[in-house]
Amino acid sequence: MKRSVKLSEIIDGMESQTDEATAYLNKETGEIVLLSDEEFSAAEEKRPLESYPEWQRGLIREAARILEDDEDRYVELPSKFDIDEYRMMERFALSVDDEFSAELLAAVKGTGVFRRFKDRAARFGIEEDWYKFRAAKFKDSAVEWCESNDIESIDDL
Question: Where a domain ends, among 78, 107, 135?
């Protein structure tokens, strides 16, 4: 049975991911689970659950179910590489007034990009515009992901 999933939950899952943690949707339950590399490693190697804290044991079991999933019940959410926030910042920079555009584009180069970009957007008084733009792009990505994975979404944003 296929469940509907709120776009806000999909976006939360997308934003929660890191280099060491990946989010998955269980298409049967509509639940999103965030699992670390450590949990997948424990599941793959079938390490004894007793050696892990109670809170992590359920996550390791979930990782094992994902690894054994032969019915495509679990679908990986778009990663930060799929979303590409650097490109998103560039697009925003190109969409604003020329007086801010060049400085915002310059902020997207080198290390410390996210902090520098946010600081400049705040200095120009367009930080809220950036967050609205970013939220709209995340929503677009979530909708597109749902459609490409035949997942019914609920627009609760």
Answer: 78
Q: Which residues of 73-88 are buried (b: 16+ CB within 10 A; e: fewer)?
A: ebbebbeeeebebeeb
Residue 91: closest CA among 144, 23, 143, 140:
140
pLDDT value of position 72: 84
Kindly state the tokens that stand for 6. 């709120």
Q: Residue 70: helix, strand or coil by DSSP?
A: coil
- Interatomic CA distance for residues 24 and 40, integer angstroms: 12
Neighbour order of strands in the sheet with 21-26: 32-36, 21-26, 74-76
pTM: 0.85
Question: What is the domain extent for residue 28?
Answer: 5-78
| Overall domain count for the chain | 2
